[in-house]
Amino acid sequence: MLETELKKYFNFSQFRAGQKEIVESIMAGRDVVALMPTGGGKSLCFQLPAILSGGISIVISPLIALMQDQVDGLVARGISATFINSSLSFDEIDQRLFEIKNGKTKIVYVAPERFANRQFQKLFAELEVFLLAVDEAHCVSQWGHDFRPDYLNVKEYIGLLAKRPIVAAFTATATPEVKDDIIERLALQSPDVFVRGFDRPNLKFFVRANLKKKERASEALRIAKSIKGSGIIYAITRKETEELAKFFKAQGISATAYHAGMAGDKREKIQNDFMENKFKVIVATIAFGMGVDKADIRFVIHVGMPGSPEGYYQEAGRAGRDGEQAFCILLHSKSDASLHNFFILTSKGEMKAQGKTWEDSQKVLSVKYAKLNKMKEYVGLETCRRLLLLEYFGDPAVKNHSGNCGGCDVCLNYKWDKSNVSESDRERRSAKQKVPRAPGEIFGTVLETVELYKQKYAPEAIAKIRSLGVSTIFNHLVQWYEAGGDFQIADFLSPEEELQISQAIEKVGSLEKLSPIKKELPAEISYEQIRMAIAKRRK
Hints:
Layout: H1 2-10, H2 19-27, E1 32-35, H3 42-52, E2 56-60, H4 64-76, E3 81-84, H5 90-101, E4 107-110, H6 118-125, E5 129-134, H7 153-160, E6 166-171, H8 176-185, E7 192-195, E8 203-208, H9 213-226, E9 231-235, H10 238-250, E10 255-258, H11 264-275, E11 281-285, E12 299-303, H12 309-316, E13 326-331, H13 335-353, H14 358-379, H15 385-392, H16 423-433, H17 444-454, H18 459-466, H19 470-482, H20 495-508, H21 515-519, H22 527-538
Parallel strand pairs: 1-6, 1-7, 2-4, 2-5, 3-4, 5-6, 8-13, 9-11, 9-12, 10-11, 12-13
Helix pairs in contact: 2-3, 4-18, 13-14, 17-19, 18-19, 19-22, 20-22
């Protein structure tokens, strides 16, 4: 039954590990706490029950950009969803509230601070809410790495509703202590607790320790150049994000900084450009949670050690959400721990100013120091790095772990001093390792795009559904076409445009690079159309 609905609404033939049990618990009317990693598919666990229910569901999320992405993905699937947050005008909010009141909306995403609004409280107190899903639920806990006071209002808000809904809390980064705090602070009623899927085998974990600042920047550049596709580089300070982005651009890498000090419209434009692969690299601050829901990030490099395993795993987990291989690389310096010690001491003064008692402050400080020490341990490990992370998050898979994951630098016996091979050497090695594929075979992420295209979804809708750029979707379809697929290029490339591209190709005299061809064409002809025309020529 559930598999049928999964296929109908999400085009998946089967659930990922742990998803079905969570969905079944919610459908049975039970509260839930689900600890799943970034990229583990937790959003489906509350979206599917919400779709199948007869009422309205509310999703609490602190990240405005992620709200937009998830709502766009649902709407592209034909599901009535909306969001309400500070990015909207008063008129837009009024219109959305009107549609919610009149039963035109199935799923509503809201920011936690919205609960302070009396108009909002009054409307939802009158509605029969089926499910209240709290995403990023670790934000409710003072022991979490990203505590947000607005989340404390959620418990009070639940009490305002005419009928208590099912409450489901989801997080990618909660220790057992934080899990218990979530249950208490959200007043969950005998919840089913799921700890699932923290092990993501497609992610490869590497650490290089004790680098100097200039060495670290150069190493991050070398790694970014050596990996095909886009990535995120996290730095500890805003100043460092700006410096690194400038350094990368000077070395011919399309990069930009991204941090909380920028205006909202500028951050939004950067996010959209990154989704469409206009930047290879985004350089962001560790402290600022990026709301970029991009599934095909191939690497996450930390130029600086995060202050907690929760922060590290959440940020590193943004890589490889499409299930393809991706790299999570931490470049460490001896000064990193000193900087985090300074941040912890600063927080001591902040807690005093907030009126916390000495005893409460000491409890928080001891937790922060313990998390920092665990990150130091991770950096200095001579045993499996993945195993440490799984143990830290209490993943049941630990009991079946052999001690060698085959996917971290320790288990692979990787030697950094041998890593600076030339690009041609690397390509030759990669070519030897490739498994031959039969002509016409399409695998992995491309196949998922093809299946949606066959169901008559437009490329723009597929991009929303799959959290990928539209340009990436077109590239997938061209690959399929070249392998013998029935991609209808004529729907996106007119005979006149094809002729113009052919003339430009003849003038340039080479297909090696697309940019010289693009320069010969009108601005409205895209790179994707050039690739389509070339694919037709080759076929």
